[in-house]
Design a protein that fits this description.
The protein has helices at residues 91-102, 143-162, 198-214, 218-229, 270-290, 319-329, 334-337, 353-358, 367-379; strands at residues 3-6, 13-16, 56-58, 72-76, 124-129, 168-175, 187-193, 233-236, 240-243, 254-258, 300-305, 341-346, 361-363. It is an alpha+beta fold and 381 residues long. It has one domain: HIT-like (HIT family, subunit A, 2-Layer Sandwich), CATH 3.30.428.10. Residues 217, 219-220, 261, 339 line the site of one zinc ion.
Length: 381
């Protein structure tokens, strides 16, 4: 018998329906790649001139920007979804201009043009080229490469937060065409916006409400329960835990949380980002084993959800800044109420008509089954 599950934090629903077990032959297949130089790949070492100029890089002292020799290279996206807009030098200027549009509770009658309210696409969109080698996945990387990737995530979040023109930045990684990657060479992306994406806003509001009622962090409490119950725990390291969320949308969906309360990834110490990188890579190795039926490579997405930046920015009365004002009144801060986490979403099932129409995902492998299989896969390493 299938069941409905509702995430109390986000309000998200899924249908866990194991009898619909996904059919292997429908899954996307990725071809293997060797790591040799590709003449037309803009991310291969030696092809630096094929991208916009770098904004950051891990490279040995003395090596020339936009030349070879780098370990991780960050460049603006050549086809950016959003742009840094000189009209909005800080978050306050954007919020005060568009606050009423951003506020979901603004009565429709207050809009001059209630049907169309375009906002300029201001933001930052960066590409982090994970490695100079032409490889596909985190699981192709050596220890040093993984460390550098997770160190650069911290460096970019830190730099972007200091610009004070963005409310939030998401770091994500698409591996394989089935997961939305347009180029095979392993890379990550950062997208920063002047307002909070609605799912983060929803999570925050609910987490604040929980904190108000209990004086506790929602995620810390949730983890305490999961660690005791162990049903959905996949793996642990000293400071992090890997689990299959109770309300998993996709087969093999995994989340990685810091065990102790940490709101912002960029505040982690380097040995912690190193530890997290290693654990994430190991988890993807397990997912690849879980998906043994895939001929080729597992496609997946990684999403790093860190706390909002506005806690250190100017305050206004609108949208998520209402949240900031609310927090201030309660003597809370985003550091207290948000708990950063990393989601790993293997592309083993596609969203289709029902998902798009109803917003519910049908998951053919329960998170309890997935966690068990991933633990078994770890045993067989
Ligand atoms: Zn390449
Ligand atoms: Zn917490």
């Amino acid at each position: 018998m299938s069941e409905y599950r509702r995430d109390p934090l986000t309000g998200r629903w899924v249908i866990v329906a194991e009898e619909r077990a996904a059919r292997p032959h429908q899954f996307d297949i990725e071809t293997n790649a060797d790591d040799s130089y590709r003449e037309h790949c803009p991310f291969c070492e030696g092809n630096e001139s094929l991208t916009p100029g770098e904004v950051d890089a891990i490279r040995p002292p003395g090596s020339r920007a936009d030349g070879p020799g780098w370990a991780v290279r960050v460049v603006p996206n050549r086809y950016p979804a959003v742009h840094r807009d000189p009209r909005f030098p800080d978050n306050h200027s954007f919020q005060s201009r568009y606050g009423n549009v951003l506020d979901v509770d603004t009565p429709l009658a207050m809009f001059e043009k209630p049907f169309y309210q375009p906002l300029p696409g201001t933001g930052a969109h960066e590409v982090l080229v994970d490695t100079p080698r032409h490889i596909l996945s985190l699981t192709d990387m050596n220890d040093e490469e993984v460390k550098n990737v997770f160190r650069m995530y911290k460096r970019r979040l830190s730099a972007i937060s200091k610009e004070k023109r963005f409310a939030h930045a998401m770091i994500f990684k698409n591996v394989g065409a089935a997961a939305g990657a347009s180029l095979p060479h392993s890379h990550s992306q950062l997208l920063a916006m002047p307002f909070l994406p609605p799912p983060i806003q929803r999570e925050l509001h609910r987490a604040i409400a929980f904190r108000r009622e209990t004086d506790l962090c929602y995620w810390c409490e949730h983890l305490k329960h999961e660690l005791k119950n162990k049903l959905r725990i996949v793996d642990e390291s000293d400071h992090f835990v890997v689990l299959c969320p109770y309300v998993s949308r996709f087969p093999g969906e995994v989340a990685v949380f810091p065990k102790r309360h940490v709101s912002h990834y960029e505040t982690l110490q380097q040995h912690h980002t190193d530890e997290l990188g290693k654990l994430v890579r190991h988890t993807i190795t397990l997912l690849e084993k879980l998906a043994v039926w895939i001929k080729g490579r597992l496609a997946y997405n990684i999403v790093l959800k860190s706390g909002p930046f506005v806690y250190n920015g100017p305050l206004d009365q609108r949208d998520m800044l209402d949240t900031a004002v609310w927090l201030q009144k309660l003597d809370y801060s985003f550091e207290k109420v948000y708990h950063f986490h990393v989601s790993i979403l293997p592309s083993l099932a596609k969203a289709a008509g029902f998902e798009w129409g109803c917003g519910l995902h049908i998951n053919p492998i329960s998170p309890e089954t997935a966690a068990q299989r991933l633990r078994d896969a770890a045993q067989s390493v």
